[in-house]
User: What shape does this take?
Amino acid sequence: MSLEGKVALVTGAGSGIGRATARAFASAGAKVVAADLDLARAAETCDGIEATPVAADVCDPGDVARMVRTAVEAYGGLDVFHNNAGIPESVKPLAEITRDEWDRVLAVNLTAFFLAAQAVVPPMRERGGGSILVTASIIARRPRPGLSAYIAAKTGVTGLARALALELAPERIRVNVINPGPSRTPMLRAFGLGAEDDAIGERLPLGRLVEPHDIAQAATYLASDAAAAVTGTVLNVDAGRDLT
Ligand SMILES: NC(=O)c1ccc[n+]([C@@H]2O[C@H](COP(=O)([O-])OP(=O)(O)OC[C@H]3O[C@@H](n4cnc5c(N)ncnc54)[C@H](O)[C@@H]3O)[C@@H](O)[C@H]2O)c1
Assistant: This one.
C-alpha cells in the first residue's frame, strides 16, 4: 500500500476521518495537501508530516481551484483526491427541513464533489491516471428516519462516483466510494443519536465503533497501485452495520 511518489489532496482534513487519512497517506509516502474550512486545524494535521495545509470551502469553485493549484504548485501534480469534507444534518422529519438546510447539506455533501471532480481530472490526466475517493456513508444503504437530506446527498455522491468511474476508466482515473459506519469523530455527536459513542459501537455486529484510522487504511489501499484494478467499488468500513 505504498503511495511513494504520489501527490494527494484530502478535503475535510482538519478533523476526524480526513485528518487520519491525510496522515496515513503521508506515512505511506505521499506528499499531501490538507484542505479544510478551518486552516488552523488543517495546519495541525500537517504537523510532523510532509504536507501543506490550505484553507478551502469545498462549495466555492474559486477555493476548489486554489486547493488543486496548491497541490500542483507545491508538489508538481496530483495523483490522489479524497473528497471527504461533509456536514451532518440535525435529525428531523421531512416536513421540518427548510429549503436552506436542504441546500446546505446537498451543497457540502454532494455538489462539492461535482465541483472538485471537474477540477482534479485535468491534472490527473496529465499524470496518465489517478485515484479519486469519496467518503459517503453506510446510511446511504441503511437509512435512518430524520436524515433525508444527508441520505439523499450520500446516495448522490455514490451514484456520481460510479458514473465517473465508468467515464474516466479509459483515462486510468479510478473512482471509488468508502461507506463509513458510525465513526469516532466530532460528527458522530452532531447527529444527536442520543447515546454515548461506545454504546453506539456496542450495538454494531463487531461490537465497536469505526475508528478514523480504519477508514484511513481503506483509503490508502484504494489510493494505491495495490488497487490498480479496482474502480466503481463501494467499500463498507462499518463494523458490520450493513448486515443488520
Ligand atoms: N463520523 C461518522 O460517524 C461518519 C459516518 C459516515 C460518514 N461520515 C462522513 O465522513 C466524512 C468525514 O466526517 P468526520 O466524521 O471526520 O467529521 P468531522 O466533523 O470530524 O470532520 C469534517 C471536516 O470537514 C470540514 N468541513 C466542513 N464543511 C466544509 C467545507 N464546506 N469546506 C471544507 N471543509 C469543510 C470541517 O471543518 C471538518 O474539519 C464526512 O463526509 C461524513 O459525512 C462520517
Summary: The helical segments are 16-27, 39-46, 61-75, 99-127, 148-168, 186-190, 197-202, 212-223. The first helix runs from residue 16 to 27. The chain has one domain: 7-238.
